Amino acid sequence: MNASTWTIDGTHSQVEFAVKHMMFTTVRGRFADFEGVVEMDPDTPERSSVEVEIGARSIDTQVDARDQHLRSADFFDVEKYPTITFRSKRVEGDVGKPGSTFTVVGDLTLHGVTREVVLNATFDGTGPDPWGNSRAGFSAETTLDRRDFGLTWNQGLEAGGVLVGHDVKIRLVVQAVKEQLVEVAAD
Q: In this structure, what are the phi and psi dihedrals at residue 179, rounded to the nearest 5 degrees?
């Protein structure tokens, strides 16, 4: 496999998160609106890269009132910060064999704050689809402290602890379509 460019297929991919509520249950959600590109070079993994843009307004926890609160200035403030972006700085490890694991180190910009995060990723493999395209699968996980990104709203609980946990687990399941090179005939 040579260096190649892959466009993330949003209809077959997920950007999900989980956070503790009241210290003992987990609330899960997702972002429905995102796009991105993966540059994959199995021979020289350090030349690989990932860029993703997520529409913050597309947050969905399946509870409309909670989603409205998450979109407000208490949390994501989507009017002021409509996008969440991730841009890799380096890829470390084997990106060319199905089942191989690697790390993607990059800058996550969320709520106007940029911090370096490390994604623990797996290359799940490639294969042809019924329409003649080549597709690849990737998965990745990380945990971040939302306070590092200025998401500090919370409420103390009478029994101790807080309403919303600080640690947020992020899980990505990505299917991407290989960009086809179009050769132009010389006149």
A: -70, 135
User: Rounded to whole angstroms, how far apart are CA atoms 49 and 89?
Assistant: 7
pTM over 0.85: yes
Fold of 4-178: Lipocalin (2.40.128)
- Full pLDDT tens readout for the chain, 187 residues: 578 999 999 999 999 999 999 999 999 999 999 999 999 988 888 899 999 999 999 999 999 999 999 999 999 999 999 999 999 999 998 887 899 999 999 999 999 999 999 999 999 999 999 999 999 999 999 999 999 999 999 999 998 899 999 999 999 999 999 997 655 555 5
DSSP state of 170: E
Domain boundaries in the chain?
Answer: 4-178
Q: Which of 116, 122, 180, 138 is nearest to 12 (CA)?
A: 138
Q: Which run of H or of E encompasses 64?
A: helix 64-71
Nearest CA-CA partner of 176 in 16, 44, 46, 49: 49
